[in-house]
Each structure stands twice: as structure tokens, then as C-alpha cells.
Amino acid sequence: MISCKDITEKANDYIDRELPLLTRMKMKIHLFACIHCQRYVSQLQITILALRKMKKEHSVDENTVDNIVNNLKNYKQNEPEIK
Amino acid sequence: MANYNPPSDDELIPQLLKNDEIAYRQAVRAYHGMMIHLARSIVGDAIADEVAQEAWVAVLRALPKFERRSSLKTWIMRIVSNCAKSRLRHESRTVNYGTAIEEATAMLSSNHFDEHGHWATPPSVWHADTPEALVSSTELQHCINNTLDSLPPLQKSVITLRDIQGLDMESICKVLDVSESNGRVLLHRARSQVREAIDQHQRVQ
Ligand SMILES: [Zn+2]
Fold this sequence. Notes:
The complex is a heterodimer of chains A (83) and B (205). With 83 residues, chain A is an all-alpha fold. Chain A is built from 4 helices and no strands. Chain A has one domain. Helix content of chain A is 73%, strand content 0%. Chain B has 205 residues and is mainly α. The longest helix of chain B has 25 residues, at 180-204. In chain B, 69% of the residues lie in helices and 0% in strands. Bound molecules: zinc ion (ZN). Zinc ion binds next to helix 1 and helix 3 of chain A.
């Protein structure tokens, strides 16, 4: 029998659909009967979805772009020739 | 500017190789933000900028030898990851892979279970129980960010890249140079800790 503890250890792979079919079926059966594990899995899912909403935009301001590009140009000019 | 779409690798790489300034600018606009993010997740805020700068030089230097077995983006990210890790080594804050993976594999919060593997302290009922609710509460955002910051370097990198930045697992494992199965262990551990922190937070209220 699969225990509640096993469920929490496999929950992540379950959500990402990385489990073999048989394990997945066993988990489904356990989850059907166990409110605590249902709650655990759904909370893990909610957590992942919340993290996705925290995506930060990577806009880079033009000053930073200038700085880096100037650095790179300097580097290129002083780069020793590689044969 | 926020959703700046970079030119394709096929357009960008030849121009970069010709040291074309416009191409440099396009590449920096497209990838620098993500590079900073990744560097932060490994070395912390203080020196992330420096590491990213260093990585750009390394990118230019290595570009002629880039074999294009991955996208330019993944390749650049891998260089950032290497620069960041060598910086850690330099400061003798070495990321010990063995320990990092072991830590991650260790039973998580096994004190929640009795000796038969049944719940002793079951998950609490969350009053904020949708992703939207979690994100719109300032306190919970604080709680989540603090937890992310407190994760060991590799766990923090994996969860940031996977769940926040939305990269696929294969690229992430390439970038961080971990096996797929270790990558999954790190992700599992990191996500579980964030869930746990949210649970604790909602329990005390
Ligand atoms: Zn259960």
C-alpha cells in the first residue's frame, strides 16, 4: 500500500506527469480516499501556479545596455589575436 | 521594451561574430535580464551584476566555437552559471553538489507523519487557496520570497528557472550541469519547502 508520506514524496512528479502509469493509478486511488493528501497535492499545485505568476519582466534599461556594449567593444579592441 | 523579442539565433549569431554593435545591443536587451536573474540565484544580489558582465565577455570569447547544439539562450545561460559557480569557488563558498543533492533527497518534513506514514499533522485549510490569492497578498508574497531566498543555491536556481522563468527542465539541467533526475529532486525539494512555508504562514493566522 502507498502511504500518505509516499504521496507527498511523489506529489511533484505526479503533478508534472513524470510517474509510470501504475504508480500514477495507485496514487489516484489513494487520493480518491484521502482528504489530507488531496489537500496536499492541490496546495502544491496552487503553489506552482502562484510562482508562475511571479514572473518578472526582464526589461534592461538603455544605460545598462550602453555600459555592457561599451565594455564589450573595449574588450574586443584589446583582445589578443588568437590564431 | 518589456516584451522585447530577440532576433532568431540564425540572424543574431553571424552578426555577433562580425562584432556588429547593433547585434550586441539586441543580444544584451534580450538576455541580460535573465542572466542577472540566474546569477542572483547562485551568487546572491551583491555580485550578480559583476558576474553577468563577466559572462558577456566569456560569451564573446567562446562564440566562434559555439557548436549550436542548444539555443543561444541556453548556451549563454550555461556560461552565466559557470561564471557564477567559479566565483563561488573563488570565494570558497563552493556549491558542493554531493551535499546539495543529498540535502534535497533527505526526507522532507517527515515529522508530519507517524511511524506508519499517516499524517500526524495534516496540511491546514488555506484561506488563500488560489494562485491569485497567494500572489495578491503582500504578506504571502513576502513569505514566498523569503523562502526562495533561504533555499540552498541549486534548489533556488532550479525553482526560479522552472516555475518563475518558465524554462523547460532539459535546458535547466544543461544550464546548471546536473542530471535530469537530480534536477527533479532539487525542484521537488524546493517546491515542497515553498508549500510548507505557505502552510505554516496560513496556519498561524
Ligand atoms: Zn493520504
